[in-house]
Write a structure and sequence with these properties.
Layout (H helix, E strand, L loop, with lengths): L6 H4 L21 H14 L6 H13 L1 H17 L10 H7 L2 H4 L5 H7 L4 H14 L3 H26 L11 H17 L4 H5 L4 H22 L3 H19 L8 H12 L4 H25 L7 H7 L8 H20 L22 H17 L5 H14 L21 H15 L9 H26 L2 H11 L4 H13 L3 H9 L3 E4 L5 E4 L2 H13 L3 H12 L5 H18 L2 H14 L5 H12 L3 H14 L4 H15 L1
Antiparallel strand pairs: 1-2
Helix pairs in contact: 2-3, 4-9, 4-10, 4-21, 8-9, 9-10, 9-12, 9-20, 10-20, 10-21, 12-13, 12-14, 14-15, 14-19, 17-18, 18-19, 19-20, 20-21, 22-23, 23-24, 23-25, 24-25, 25-26, 25-27, 26-27, 27-28, 28-29, 29-30, 30-31
Pfam families: TPR_19
GO molecular function: mannosyltransferase activity
Keywords: Membrane, TPR repeat, Transmembrane, Transmembrane helix
């Protein structure tokens, strides 16, 4: 839509009037004197008349070194909120994607092997593979990379706001002061918001944060290319956009909506005639089709096959598309609630109720709410473009994981990481406007003070939530208490209670994870997941209740399971005989566990202990060397090898 410089448009309360003077490096120009007067007025309104000139000079300095200031502030914010998380252990999918993934711990250093394991997530696995090559399974290095990705993404959010402010729709509405405040507040809000913890502190969700980095970076490249002053700059920025888009597409599948996001930016911030809008829309559809063809090619599928389309657009068949979409109409409001009021956050929402259709419970009202919000966005395109962008970007970025593509886990907080970029841009812009001139009864000083206070409170909440993540028992106890119906939370809590030596508590927690059914004869049947069963076995072994532990193992081995899980059961079965002194039976079971899952460490370590304890030092050394090849930094292996060397030297 073409923006006309009518008196109606000039009166829209979108930004303070542009001042003339020294260029600041941000979109628009502003003089140091104007900044000083602005901050001086704010100080006077707040009752600090005597410090007005000092604050004015400080404001001028901050704006003069605007981008350096933003980088420093962002780094400090991230350090304060995430600096204490370097010891957070592996959780949930960290094990299957990193610690138990031979594509990582046996990586040959080539892209080909990673490509064969997870084609559409190659970039994420590449970074995880490099982490392993540098420090194996020591978690600190993984966290350093995750935190760095989060920091860069926050800086790109700031850059996106700055870039959008140079678009034709906003360039006459925003001066340097507004752009500085808006971009800074948007970026810091993104960095310290507690809802984003899962995408940063949960190691494997580097996939979500790295995908967002490339996604937002590509958007920045596009906008900069559209507003570039020379042909060379256009070529460079559009090349940057294309490169980051390519990286995004092989980091995580939710980035497939990037062409739609670029189309959204074009429509909202580069006003066009109806004819051009139609062409832009057709171009967006063509780009989406192009991404579909690329994804199909990568996965070696026929992009024109309906069967392939069905397969590529569902992670599970246990939930119908209608049921999943109906559920997501409620889930999106949950994410929005957590953005506005970030309490009651959870690691896991496994027992979140599934809606079967659009007429169940609050689903019709949830859907109506989304339609109304979309309507607000549509009618805001001309007068409040950032509001329209924030709303529509939120839905576009959620489209892959919160629409008609069924995923087993219907809720995970890391899925809000990328969509929240739009909300942070909107919030930063609104607070930036309010910090520059009175809006109704609001005064700039109040808005700035409230904005800073808000970021401080969010930072404290983020720090405290991360503190909970450092203690697995505290994290899962918190999860189980907040959502008692979540069986997976109780089962994982039972696991960490075992590791903490709290065996009776582990039995109680693991017991709460059981599926309870009543037979026709009135007998109550308790069914446990494999992980819960392992908890019960280990806790009973530690409590010397060997008969109960053997019974649980025997029951577990009757069911079907993965090689890894069978190996774990056999290893624990061997542990029982080892503690009973039946070394021959234990040795037999450890060997069987290794045959079932050759990459397993515990059976090799324990088998080596039997060899060493019975004087078979050569065999002990050999089995521990094999274990060291799997995990060169395993403490038990290193200690055993050192002790064996000392024994043989005597």
């Amino acid at each position: 839509m073409t923006q006309k410089k009518s008196s109606k448009n000039q009166k829209a309360p979108l930004a303070p009037h542009r001042s003339n003077g020294k260029t600041t490096g941000f979109s628009g120009v502003v003089s140091g004197g104007a900044i000083a007067r602005n901050l001086g007025a704010v100080s006077a309104a707040a009752g600090f008349e005597g410090k007005a000139n000092l604050l004015g000079r400080l404001g001028a300095v901050l704006l003069r070194y605007g981008r350096i200031t933003q980088i420093v502030l962002a780094a400090i914010a991230v350090l304060l909120t995430y600096g204490h998380t370097l010891d957070v252990p592996f959780y949930l999918d960290d094990f299957s994607n990193i610690e138990e993934n031979p594509s990582i711990y046996q990586w040959d250093g080539t892209l080909k092997s990673l490509w064969g394991f997870g084609k559409l997530r190659t970039m994420a696995y590449l970074t995880l593979g490099i982490n392993y090559k540098l420090h194996a399974f020591q978690v600190a290095g993984y966290h350093v990379v995750n935190i760095a990705i989060h920091l860069i993404t926050g800086l790109l959010v700031m850059a996106l706001v700055r870039s959008l402010a140079k678009s034709p729709v906003l360039k006459d509405r925003a001066d340097g002061t507004l752009v500085f405040w808006a971009s800074t507040l948007a970026g810091i809000l993104f960095l310290v918001h507690p809802l984003h913890i899962q995408a940063v502190t949960y190691i494997v969700q580097r996939m979500a944060s790295l995908a967002a980095l490339f996604y937002v970076g590509s958007l920045v490249g596009y906008v900069e290319g559209r507003t570039a002053s020379t042909h060379l700059k256009q070529v460079l920025w559009f090349s940057f956009c294309a490169l980051f888009a390519a990286f995004a597409f092989i980091t995580k599948q939710n980035t497939a909506t990037l062409p739609v996001a670029i189309t959204l930016v074009e429509i909202v911030f580069f006003g066009h005639s109806r004819k051009k809008l139609l062409l832009i829309g057709l171009g967006g559809v063509g780009a989406i089709f192009g991404v579909w063809v690329v994804f199909s090619f990568i996965l070696d599928y026929n992009p024109f096959s309906l069967e392939v389309m069905e397969k590529m657009t569902q992670e599970t068949s246990a939930i119908s598309r209608i049921s999943y979409f109906a559920t997501q109409t409620r889930v999106l409001w949950l994410y929005l609630k957590h953005f506005l009021w970030p309490t009651q956050l959870l690691m896991d929402y496994q027992s979140y109720p599934i809606s079967q259709d659009f007429w169940e419970g609050i689903v019709p009202f949830a859907l109506l709410g989304h339609l109304l919000l979309a309507g607000v966005g549509f009618f805001s395109i001309e007068r409040q473009p950032m509001l329209a962008f924030g709303i529509f970007f939120y839905y576009v970025a959620h489209a892959v994981e919160s629409s008609f593509i069924p995923i087993t886990d219907v809720v995970f907080e890391h899925r809000a990481y990328l969509p929240d970029v739009g909300l942070c841009c909107l919030a930063g812009w609104a607070l930036g406007i309010g910090s520059q001139k009175p809006v109704g009864w609001l005064r700039p000083g109040w808005v700035r003070g409230t904005s800073i206070a808000l970021l401080v409170v969010l930072g404290i909440l983020c720090f405290e939530r991360n503190q909970v993540w450092r203690d697995p028992v505290a994290l899962w106890q918190d999860n189980a208490n907040k959502l008692p119906s979540n069986r997976r939370a109780w089962e994982i809590l039972g696991k960490y209670l075992v590791l903490a030596g709290r065996y009776e508590e582990s039995l109680a927690a693991s017991g709460k994870s059981a599926i309870v059914t009543k037979e026709e004869n009135g007998v109550t049947q308790y069914t446990y997941s494999h992980e819960a069963l392992l908890n019960l076995i280990v806790a009973n072994i530690k409590l010397k209740r060997f008969d109960m532990a053997k019974k649980l193992v025997a029951d577990g081995l009757k069911s079907g399971m993965s090689p890894l899980n069978r190996s774990k059961l056999l290893t624990n079965y061997a542990n029982i005989f080892y503690q009973e002194g039946n070394l021959s039976e234990a040795e037999k079971l450890y060997k069987e566990a290794i045959d079932v899952f050759p990459a397993g460490l515990p059976p090799r370590i324990n088998l080596g202990a039997i060899y060493a304890g019975t004087g078979r030092y050569d065999e002990a050394e050999q089995i521990w060397k094999e274990a060291a090849q799997i995990d060169p930094n395993n403490l038990s292996v290193l200690q055993n090898m050192k002790l064996l060397k000392e024994i043989r030297s005597k």
